[in-house]
Structures are given as C-alpha cells and as structure tokens.
Amino acid sequence: MHGSWRTEHVRSVRAQCVSCSFDRSPTLPGFTEHIPDFLWIATDSLHIYAVVVEIEAPKKKIFTRGGQPTAQFTQAQTQIAHWKSWFREPANQTLFCDHYLMDALPRWRTFIPQYVLIYGRRSEIDGNAQLNRLRANLSRDGEHYMTFDRLHPIKEHDQYMTARFRAGRYEAVSMPATLEMGPLWARNRSMIEGKDVVVDKTPYMADDRKEFVKARLGYWDKWAADGRTGMMGIGDAE
C-alpha cells in the first residue's frame, strides 16, 4: 500500500491546538527496523501521549479459515512489539521528546506511548462470536486495534493540522477545510512552516476562504512571535 493512499484516507478522518499529527513515515530517532506510518502527539494537563500508528491494507485478513491469526496480522503485531521495546528505554523517550517536541511542551509531564493498528474490515468478524472474542484478546497493553470501518471524522478534532518534522523544523503537510485562526491556536501553529503553501491544496475549502486564510496566517504568526497574551476564547476565532 503506497504512502499517498495512506495519507489521503487517514487525512480524511483527522482534522492544532497542542495536538499535532505527523505523517509521511515519522522516524523514531536511532530506530531503523520499521518506520511507523503515522504519529499523533497529544497532551492533557499531566501527560504527553505519543500515538504510533500502523496502517495495513483493508483487504488483509485478520484470521485464517481455521480461526488462527494470519501471518500478515502477526507481522503487524511484531512491528508494534519492536516499537514498544524501543520506547521502554527511558533514554529513547528522552530522544523522542528532544526530536519532536523541541520547546513546545513542558517535559515534566508523564510520557505515555500508545500504539494503534488499523487493519482489515469489520465484515470479516461480523456475526462470528468466536472470532470477536478472540480478536478482543489479541491486543496487548497500550495497544488499540481497529478496522477501517472505525475511521470517521471527529468534530472535536476539526482544528488539527498534519505536519512533517524534518531537520529540526515542523513543516505543514495538510490542514482541514474547517481551519479557524485566532489566539487559541496561534502559538503552536506559529512553529509550523509552510502553512500558506498547503492552503491551496486543501480540499473542500472555498476559494474565497483560502484567500482569507493565506492573508491572515502571517498576522497570527507575528502575534505569537510578539508574545502577546490576554483573555482568549472561542469567540476570538476567525
């Protein structure tokens, strides 16, 4: 399955506050055995979550006719096991944060890696109680398995951008047509370069909206660079 296929299908279910999704095969520093398909970094007040995503073709089967996990599914699980082994080393967690977070997030937050495997279709196990029970027990600690049927837009994520991390910089890859601008998002988005370039590539965004967004992106980057603060709310969006 080609990277462009993955990008278009997963982009459709993501829509930047502090969270940001990195695509185009994000690297784990010093790890070369298998590069993840996507990476999503999310936070709350106490934690930093690194969500590593593996995407396999929807036509791949989870089980053989005899009800055993297929070799392809087991291989995908093994890839996740390699990532988990890498993240268990505290030094590698530090490497990861140094590589991706720069100074964007406080390092005292607890670091929690999570692993998502998107594999197969629901139709393979629909109506089969035995396979459903078996599938429910295949995922290990910190792992989340889902079929392509689970992918859908989430309204609360309609401000998320996708970025690539390269040579110590965040580069914009895509933005949602629902993108809004304002003080709530300005500081984090100001660290992403090339936002104006991806505006014209954004599907479902009206042409007049694209022109407005391109005209205002520079203003909000400067607003963040000037260190301006104050009362901020949803009503400040434009």
Structure notes:
This protein has 238 residues and is α/β, with parallel strands linked by helices. The chain has seven helices and eight strands. The chain has helices spanning 3-11, 71-87, 90-100, 129-136, 183-189, 195-199, 207-225; strands at residues 20-22, 38-43, 47-55, 110-118, 143-146, 162-166, 169-174, 192-193. The chain has an eight-stranded mixed β-sheet with strand order 5-4-3-2-1-6-7-8. α5 (183-189) packs across α7. The longest helix is centred in the last third of the chain and has 19 residues, at 207-225. The radius of gyration is 19 Å and the shape is globular. It starts with a helix and ends in a 13-residue tail after the last helix. The model is unreliable at 1-19 (pLDDT under 50).
Unreliable runs: 1-19
How large, in whole angstroms, is the Cα Rg?
19 Å
Residue share in β-strands: 15-25%
The profile of the biggest β sheet is:
8 strands, mixed
Overall mean confidence score, pLDDT: 83
Order of helices and strands: HEEEHHEHEEEHEHH
* Total of DSSP H or I helical runs spanning 4+ residues: 7
Distance between the termini: 38 Å
| Secondary structure: number of strands | 8
Structural class: alpha/beta
Helix % is 25-40%
Physical arrangement of strands within the biggest beta sheet: 5-4-3-2-1-6-7-8
Which geometry do the CA atoms define? globular
